[in-house]
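=== Structure Prediction Worksheet ===
Name of assembly: unnamed complex
Input type: mixed (protein and possibly other molecules)
Chain count: two
Listed entries:
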Amino acid sequence: MGEPAGIGGEIILKAWNTYRRSLPPLFVIDDRNRLQKLLGQLNLNMDLVEFDPANPGLYENGSRLPVLHAPLPAEQKPGQLISANAAAVVDSIAKAVALTQAGQASGIVTNPIHKSALYETGFSFPGHTEYLASLTTPAATPVMMLACEHLRVVPVSIHVSLRDAVNTLTTDSIIAQSVITANALRRDFGISTPRLAIAGLNPHAGEAGAMGSEEQTIITPAITALKNRGINASGPYPPDTLFAARSRNTYDVAICMYHDQALIPIKTLDFDGGVNITLGLDFIRTSPDHGTALDIAGTGQASETSLVAAIQMAARLAIHRQEYDSRSDA
Amino acid sequence: MGEPAGIGGEIILKAWNTYRRSLPPLFVIDDRNRLQKLLGQLNLNMDLVEFDPANPGLYENGSRLPVLHAPLPAEQKPGQLISANAAAVVDSIAKAVALTQAGQASGIVTNPIHKSALYETGFSFPGHTEYLASLTTPAATPVMMLACEHLRVVPVSIHVSLRDAVNTLTTDSIIAQSVITANALRRDFGISTPRLAIAGLNPHAGEAGAMGSEEQTIITPAITALKNRGINASGPYPPDTLFAARSRNTYDVAICMYHDQALIPIKTLDFDGGVNITLGLDFIRTSPDHGTALDIAGTGQASETSLVAAIQMAARLAIHRQEYDSRSDA
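=== Predicted Assembly ===
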């Protein structure tokens, strides 16, 4: 569901209406009445059907979108945050995780949430991802990957100031994020020997200490430790040339030293098609790479492109994971 | 000339051989004997002709490349730095500036130099640009712009560590670089009311202080001051979305808070076609956006694309400047 005041409802309806033949089998956890009302507003030629998790195989990708009803207590209008509905948003996430952990779904695609709306209900996590990590057994260290057709990136730190990103960068944090990433590339992306390109922090990767020493004191020791664990890691690479086309061909993921080092190149290359993937959980989770967009909710302007990419990515990851796990079991 | 051990000689020969009909009238300041030898090695169907600066109008862009002879005292082989030739490299830069300031050339395109080779001769500048600024009358504050077909960027700081870039960012430095940039866009780019997009420093431009406060304490005051000077500046913008196609359409230049914030997007978008432009000098100066590439010098592998773009850019800037100055004189 995500935040029901946002664009989540309309982009899943638009995604199903236009792309259902290229989407994997899926069901939506949302309030069927609000979706039905949105359908009318958007004038889409499709309908909803009640989803029964006990019989997930009964649904085809026809004109009717399967919906597992998650009732909202208060009537929801686009763009208006309603605190009475916040608990239902959190419940829909927990429901998705429970169904996935029970084997009734292969993965989760989350629509964006609005954190401040949830905090009023006692939700105490910094964000969606941390809440999902808390539902993992045992509780996990989540790693954020962003992926588009041309590039995969993992920022070592996320929502901290640039100053704090520099100050808190450690050899251990680079190693931890890289190991989780390498494992996920093997299990969920079908890459048997993933190539990790480790970015430098400073211009030109410091030019041997002339412009910063973190490459020598923090990053290179992490690369050495990763190699000692049998991981194909290399670098540190000058950040400015690492994302050019001919560099991108040489690695499967770029491990980035701060948020914008990762997000600038991917959003520059593919603003709408980027997918957010949470690695390190005990279930597959992807999400579109945008926010709730309260300002345009209900207008029909929102693009479903990133959600479609997130759904297709979740299916690919689930297939790879099933193949990997069946080989490991054999 | 640039560093004669590097690729400068071969890329100007290749540029002339392939693109001379789309290049402006130009002459090369270099050692004609080494260029003649390179011509043979590269097996190019063209020749050199002695350039006489007193008669610059006599040369057409035919098969013969005009060369103003700048003799190297020692025989130069590709890839080998020779300190006996370093003074001649510096002299060729000074000669280009003197001819331009005397009105015998409309602008300068510099091939890359190798700083450590020049330091042995007593050259005491951090780089090419600072040396050029010292030859300006009065001595100038040079501003580095990088431009490709899709984007122009100016980093407020250049060759310092990321930590120092954060620590030394000031309202005054943003204002100073932005004013020089706005003036250059008017005079040299033919943009009567340039739109400056000022980037944030932190993820999501700090989200109202949640992830860093420099947007509030340093950047926004600079934008206010620029507006008060009549400059169309706006921001601070979230850095990760600022370089996506639909954002790029809304501004003429992005003023960036550190080196890689500027260089990552432009090198990701256009690795070979980027041009380095020095603003704030009393003459036009561009350069290709790459180094001396000693490792491939003499092999014929070097791409002339960025040099060709730098030459064409210098010509466009010179035409705009002449038009602007003639209007200002009238």
